[in-house]
Description:
This protein is an all-alpha fold. Helices cover about 100% and strands about 0% of the residues. It contains 1 helix and no strands. It starts with a helix and ends with a helix. Pfam families: Tropomyosin. GO terms for molecular function: actin binding. InterPro entries: Tropomyosin.
Amino acid sequence: MEEMDRAQERLAVVLQKLEEAEKAIDESERGVKVIENQAAKDKEQMELQKMQQKEAKHIAEETDHKYKEVACKLVIAEGDLEHTAPISRKVSVLSLRKS
Length: 99
């Protein structure tokens, strides 16, 4: 009878430890799910930022290209102005003489 009581006590202790281990496993699994969800969100955010970076780079390159085009046109316009200014003065002088 004593052996049976000791066996039942050991069984109760083992069952208690098993229950505690199952709770610890459940908590660990919940923790893993939380971490996995956060990792998935972080990955999505990173992909979005990567796309935004590509778009920003593309816009910056387009803007730089347009700036260079405008700067080129300005140089040409300034050259044209320098070339036409003396002619314009001559025309003005001739117009004044005819009057």
